[in-house]
Design brief:
The protein is mainly α. Helix content is 64%, strand content 0%. The longest helix has 30 residues, at 43-72.
Length: 78
Protein backbone atom coordinates (compact mmCIF):
# COMPACT_ATOMS: atom_id res chain seq x y z
CA UNK A 1 0.00 0.00 0.00
CA UNK A 2 2.12 2.86 -1.26
CA UNK A 3 0.95 6.45 -1.37
CA UNK A 4 2.40 9.28 -3.34
CA UNK A 5 3.55 12.46 -1.65
CA UNK A 6 0.47 14.33 -2.85
CA UNK A 7 -1.82 11.94 -0.94
CA UNK A 8 -0.10 12.24 2.43
CA UNK A 9 -1.79 14.49 4.96
CA UNK A 10 0.80 16.92 6.30
CA UNK A 11 -1.18 18.16 9.29
CA UNK A 12 0.11 16.08 12.19
CA UNK A 13 -0.55 18.49 15.07
CA UNK A 14 -3.33 17.61 17.46
CA UNK A 15 -5.09 20.01 19.78
CA UNK A 16 -3.97 19.95 23.42
CA UNK A 17 -6.48 18.17 25.62
CA UNK A 18 -5.27 18.65 29.20
CA UNK A 19 -3.03 20.98 31.16
CA UNK A 20 0.17 19.01 30.53
CA UNK A 21 -0.45 19.21 26.76
CA UNK A 22 -0.94 22.98 27.05
CA UNK A 23 2.28 23.36 29.06
CA UNK A 24 4.26 21.22 26.60
CA UNK A 25 2.93 23.15 23.60
CA UNK A 26 3.63 26.53 25.21
CA UNK A 27 7.15 25.48 26.20
CA UNK A 28 7.83 24.14 22.70
CA UNK A 29 6.61 27.36 21.07
CA UNK A 30 8.69 29.46 23.48
CA UNK A 31 11.86 27.46 22.84
CA UNK A 32 11.25 27.53 19.09
CA UNK A 33 10.86 31.32 19.20
CA UNK A 34 14.24 31.70 20.90
CA UNK A 35 15.90 29.21 18.53
CA UNK A 36 14.47 31.00 15.50
CA UNK A 37 15.60 34.37 16.84
CA UNK A 38 19.10 33.18 17.71
CA UNK A 39 19.70 31.23 14.47
CA UNK A 40 17.94 33.70 12.19
CA UNK A 41 20.45 33.50 9.35
CA UNK A 42 22.46 30.42 10.34
CA UNK A 43 20.20 27.57 9.24
CA UNK A 44 23.04 25.03 9.32
CA UNK A 45 23.82 25.80 12.96
CA UNK A 46 20.14 25.50 13.87
CA UNK A 47 19.98 22.06 12.23
CA UNK A 48 23.05 20.88 14.16
CA UNK A 49 21.57 22.05 17.48
CA UNK A 50 18.20 20.42 16.74
CA UNK A 51 19.82 17.12 15.77
CA UNK A 52 21.93 17.21 18.94
CA UNK A 53 18.89 17.83 21.15
CA UNK A 54 16.87 15.14 19.34
CA UNK A 55 19.49 12.51 20.23
CA UNK A 56 19.32 13.18 23.97
CA UNK A 57 16.15 11.18 24.88
CA UNK A 58 17.41 8.04 23.15
CA UNK A 59 20.79 8.29 24.83
CA UNK A 60 19.20 8.80 28.25
CA UNK A 61 16.88 5.82 27.73
CA UNK A 62 19.77 3.62 26.61
CA UNK A 63 21.91 4.66 29.58
CA UNK A 64 19.08 4.01 32.06
CA UNK A 65 18.53 0.56 30.56
CA UNK A 66 22.26 -0.17 30.73
CA UNK A 67 22.56 0.97 34.36
CA UNK A 68 19.50 -1.10 35.33
CA UNK A 69 21.05 -4.20 33.77
CA UNK A 70 24.32 -3.53 35.61
CA UNK A 71 22.49 -3.12 38.91
CA UNK A 72 20.61 -6.40 38.45
CA UNK A 73 23.62 -8.19 36.91
CA UNK A 74 21.60 -9.48 33.96
CA UNK A 75 21.80 -9.11 30.20
CA UNK A 76 19.84 -6.16 28.83
CA UNK A 77 19.26 -7.99 25.51
CA UNK A 78 20.22 -4.90 23.60
Amino acid sequence: MSTSHSEVELKSHRSPTDWSDHIALTLTRLLRFFADAFFRKRYGHRAVVLETVAAVPGMVGGMLNHLKSLRRMEDDRG
